[in-house]
Amino acid sequence: MKVQLEPDQELIEAFTGAMSVQNSGLPASLVETSGNSYTVRIDPAALPPEVISDTGIVTFDVFAQDPDAARYTATTVSVRAVLNDDGTYSWTDPTGPSVDLDDGELAARIPASARTAYRRSLVPGASLVTKFAPRVRPVHANLAKPQAKGVICDSVGCAPTQHASGMHRMTVAEDDGGETEPSGAIDAPVITDGATAAADCGDVDGDGMWWTDVKRNVSSTIGTAYPVRDDPAWMSHESGSSSEFTSTFGIAWDNLGYFEESGTRTAEKGTGFDWDHKSYSRSFRVGVVYQKVEALFDRCPGATPYYTKWVPIGYSGGYNENTDGVSRPDWNHCVTIGSTGTWWRDASSGSSYSLSTGVKFAGVIGVDLSSKRAYNAEAKLGYHVGLVGRRMCGNDDVPGMSGKVMERSKP
User: 184 lies in a domain?
Assistant: First the structure.
């Protein structure tokens, strides 16, 4: 099992042209395996600032190998470190709520002049972690299907193998009271501009992950609305001071001559948009920028990569809507609305909105990818209920907790 840390979104968005990235590697002592599961135990304070966002998001690349069967798999997954009220921390799903260091009692303990540096270097800061929370949060990731051949890489290079079956669950856990890696124990990623990296490649051990200058703007569905008759519905996508608006998008991975989804990466921050109130069913879409990345590892630019992947790196600022194929579902987790007025959901509790084919990438790589978006104050779905007795219904729970919500007429 090999686990690496990617640079955070802010650094990647600043790339100009092709770049070579040698990812940060986690010490083997922090990675535990058991059957088809693996656990990473890591203190956020031990991470270099280049791999953790100012709201605590960290993206892991995981390579799992079964040496006896000569099989392997690879995936990417993002998690978020958040501070608890008692000064402990937890790893959570990144589409859940983040902690705003500009508000509340916690902010009073950190001088305003130091908050930006604090977020970048210590989330949470070692000075605030007085004990470790006992909770363990599972993070699920989609892995490539176990078929055909690929590569697995270690410190001396890469060798052909096959995909590993299993290894389907990742858990990022708080420390259990034992030893942890001290701050600075994990090296920062080495980022080199493409021209320099290409010129020096023969003198070093290859160019690692080659972030090409090839990008694509694609649309991703982050919500749907199903109003009744003249009742309008809308969605707000805002970028406020707390940077809570985050979505997780699928990563396309290819080493077999075709692409398939293998893992996800979380994007945060962007422009804002409020869709107008409309009385027809539609989906809400945002523009997402994907960048082509080649796994060169011990090879140099121009050589055949071990595999290629398309990675979401941020929002393009584009917005649109879609009505094609958006037909009214038949959901029955309903509540009656006994008055007229405005109904909305912005609570982060309950399910997030998700769609297995949300990222419309098939026109480029032949397959659409998944999208997932949290509900919160910056990602809000609203309906105007114009007739007493109409119902709000969720797809998997009551509408206040469901990932998808529709309006229905009176029974």
Answer: no
Residue 333 covered by a domain = yes
Residue numbers of the domain that contains 165: 2-179+189-408
Domains: count for the chain? 1
Q: Stretch 292-308: mean pLDDT, rounded?
A: 89
Sign of CA dihedral 24, 84, 140, 366: negative
* Contact indicator for 82, 99 with CB cutoff of 8 Å: yes
Q: Strand 57-66 to strand 37-41: parallel, antiparallel, or no bridges (unpaired)?
A: unpaired
pTM of the predicted model over 0.85:
no
| Mean pLDDT of all residues in 379-389 | 95
Model confidence pLDDT, tens digit, residues 14-55: 998 999 999 999 888 877 777 666 677 777 777 888 998 877
Q: What confidence tens digit (pLDDT) does each residue in 55-104 have?
A: 788 898 887 766 665 566 778 888 887 766 556 566 777 775 444 444 44
Q: Is the pLDDT of residue 152 over 80?
A: no
Whether residue 88 lies inside any domain: the answer is: yes
**Residue 154: C-alpha distances to residues 131, 160, 205, 209, 233 (Å):** 35, 12, 12, 14, 52
Residue 67 forms part of a structural domain: yes
Say whether the peptide bond before residue 124 is cis (omega within 30 degrees of 0): yes
Query: pLDDT tens, 203-247?
Result: 666 778 999 999 999 999 999 999 999 999 999 987 553 445 678
CB contact at 8 A, 384 and 229: no
